[in-house]
Amino acid sequence: MMNYSTHKQNKKNKEMEEKVSRLENEKKILEQRLQNQTEELAYARQNIQMQHTKISIVEKFVLEQQKEIGNILRSLPLMGPTGANTDVVSSQVEEIVNTIKRHEDKVSNVLQRELTCLKISTATPNARDVIVNSSSSRECEGQLDRAEHQLALHEIQLSEQDMQIQMLEAAYIWKIDHYSQWFQEAVSGKRLSIYSPPFYAGQFGYKVCTLLYPNGDGIGKGTHMSMFFVIMRGEYDALLPWPFIQKVHFRLIDQDKIRDACDAFQPEPSSSSFKRPTSEMNIATGCPTFISQTELRQGGFIRNDTMSVKITVDMTGLQGEMSRL
């Protein structure tokens, strides 16, 4: 009986030793998992910090875009309600602003999810908690990858929007709706002139616009429609030659495609109108007798109460200067 009891006790001791060994192995596995979890969380925090830096850069870029868009929006009142052309510009600018806001919201939501992911407790977990936290860490890494991808798309779309803004500034054809209304307001003295949207004469060129007097101005008042050219303060003035000496052409398009009305002028270098602007715009100059009222109404220049004017700046002698910019 003693031998049997001793054998039974030895068997129990062996089973206990095996159980202790298994528990020690499980403990080592859990400690290793905990260490891996801690490393994964540290890596996730490092990635979050990188994302914060990238988001800060994107936010700065967004602010610059919004500032540029704001400048365009502030310039629109100078043009007045120039019919469909201004409506198109306004709608495009509004669409760009809305698109930027939507992407800002997306980036903000992704960042919020990432910060929530980091709130997982780092206290010593049991085996089940280690597995859950490890899965959460992998999910957090996936969110970080998606956030980085979203930021890359965000930067690409902002670049495309910047190109759209540049295209808005490069308008050379001015479409004027409701011309009869502008003419009646000019005759009554309510509003004598209207401005075109500003545009750049070539890439990195002069910022200019056109000023139209429906009932004429100066020697053309009451008998002609007057067309003037205005040099505005632009982004690249410090890089351009002054005074402005490029020949300017005006073309009123005949919508019946018979004969356009054309005129041009060569800038006088000594005139203050062609010096580098020190205010928002220089004094307008151009063609006070561009087209007579009689000829304007006899031709096909006005159709459906709409007319179109093409403004061209002769780039001769300037292309070499601009190609070096």
Beta-strand percentage range = 15-25%
Whole-number tally of structural domains: 2
Instruction: State mean pLDDT (0 to 100 scale).
Output: 77
Structural class: alpha+beta
| Radius of gyration from the alpha-carbon trace, in angstroms | 36 Å
Residues in helix, %: 40-55%
**Helix count?**
6
| Element-by-element helix/strand order | HHHEHEEEEEEEHEH
The N- and C-terminal alpha carbons lie at a distance of 106 Å
Biggest β-sheet: count, sense, barrel?
Answer: 5 strands, antiparallel
Q: Count the E strands.
A: 9
Give the low-pLDDT segments.
77-86, 119-132, 163-171
Task: Indicate the overall shape.
Answer: rod-shaped
Question: What does the model show?
Answer:
With 325 residues, the protein is α+β, with helices and mostly antiparallel strands. It has 2 domains: 168 residues, no CATH class; 151 residues, Sandwich (Apoptosis, Tumor Necrosis Factor Receptor Associated Protein 2, Chain A), CATH 2.60.210.10. Helix content is 54%, strand content 16%. The radius of gyration is 36 Å and the shape is rod-shaped. The protein starts with a helix and ends with a helix. 22% of the residues are buried. About 10% of the residues have low confidence.
Q: Which features characterize this protein?
A:
325 residues; Apoptosis, Tumor Necrosis Factor Receptor Associated Protein 2, Chain A; 54% helix
Summary of the model, kept short:
The chain has helices spanning 2-79, 83-117, 127-169, 179-188, 293-298, 319-323; strands spanning 173-176, 194-195, 199-201, 206-213, 224-232, 248-252, 261-265, 285-292, 307-313.
